[in-house]
Design a protein that fits this description.
Elements (H helix, E strand, L loop, with lengths): L1 H19 L21 E6 L5 E5 L12 H13 L8 E3 L2 H4 L13 E3 H9 L4 H12 L2 H14 L26 H11 L3 H7 L3 E4 L4 E4 L4 H4 L4 E9 L3 E10 L2 E10 L2 H18 E7 L4 E8 L6 E6 L3 E6 L6 E7 L2 E2 L8 E9 L2 E9 L9 H8 L5
Parallel strand pairs: 11-15
Antiparallel strand pairs: 1-2, 1-9, 3-4, 5-6, 7-8, 8-9, 10-13, 11-12, 12-17, 14-16, 16-17
Helix pairs in contact: 2-6, 2-7, 4-5, 5-6
Amino acid sequence: MKRWIVVLLVLIFWASSAYARPAHHKKVVKKPVAEKAAPYKAFIVTEASTGRMIDGENIHEKRPPASVTKLMLAYVVMDKLNKKELNLTDKITVSKEASKIGGSQVYLKEGEVFSLEDLMKATLIASGNDAAFAIAEHVAGGKEEFIKLMNEKAKAIGMAETEFNSVHGLPPSKGEKEDLTTCHDLAILARELLRYPKIIEWTSIKSEGFRDGKFIMNNHNKLLTKMPGIVDGLKTGYYSQTGFNIVATGKKNELRLIVVVMGSPSAKIRDEVAIEKFKKAFSQYKVVNVVKKGEVIDKDIFLIDGKYRKIKGVANASFVYPVPSEKKDLIKKEYVVQEKVKGEVKEGQKLGEIVVRLENNIIAKVDIVSPVYVPKANLFTRFIRRLGLNI
């Protein structure tokens, strides 16, 4: 009897265990933790006056710049304005094709007429693809002709890693090529653009009315408000395949920097990266005014035949250089001048040079020139001098 009770208890325990156990065992697999997206694909920081690179990563990696492409359109236009081939008051009539360009736009209508300056603002502030297209048609007669100008100018200023295939930076349509460039080349372009004050005037505008104020253009470059008083340009760009890009410039005291960031996963992250690069470079670097144009070089140069017996040369140009704060006292200047000069001396004639070194590396040479014209002395004076008499 007891044996049956034991057997019964075993059967009841087994049944209850089977009932509690799930019919199908599933292996619990932990989902992998998603890797944090990299904050950028490439970046560069350069000093604007010299073009010297301060920091960078993947600076030669070719990537689509998206709407940053419009900076090259701006450079072509500024070059032609400088040559008097264009005028900012030129009137541009919007074509049917320009009115149909999508993406960021100021909603141009066929037949509308705007000044070149109005459309340049629309291009650089609102990133208007339609405005950029209308400008290209006006300047070169068509987009293909203007793209050719863009690539010619890119090559001329040393953008060897760049190829433009659009005037606005939109993603390519089927059968078309995308625009390609690098952080390195965009820094070159930015430096060239800074030669034209109008560029900073336009790209520093945070908001402005268009079409008699009926359309408000808001600048896509939010660094203007995130770093006020420092950042004053230049351009952002984005489409899904390339990520978020920016070419920015800012000035603090005497130091102007160019920061390029390409391929960020969001506008917020891109801006955070750019701000961090600006702050780091501004805190670590100082601009040293090494040579001032016109400064007198305190070394006498004797004039064998001149009306005057001696002269002091002057620096022909200024030279400034960005250096880490702790190295600013390591910049040294050496003055190499001719001891004697024959014949007349023309104003601006080279008499020597200033050799600038940092840690024994030559970083610049600045010509020393004559500040005035010195004619030959008369024959009698020159004859007496050759006799060794001091006249």
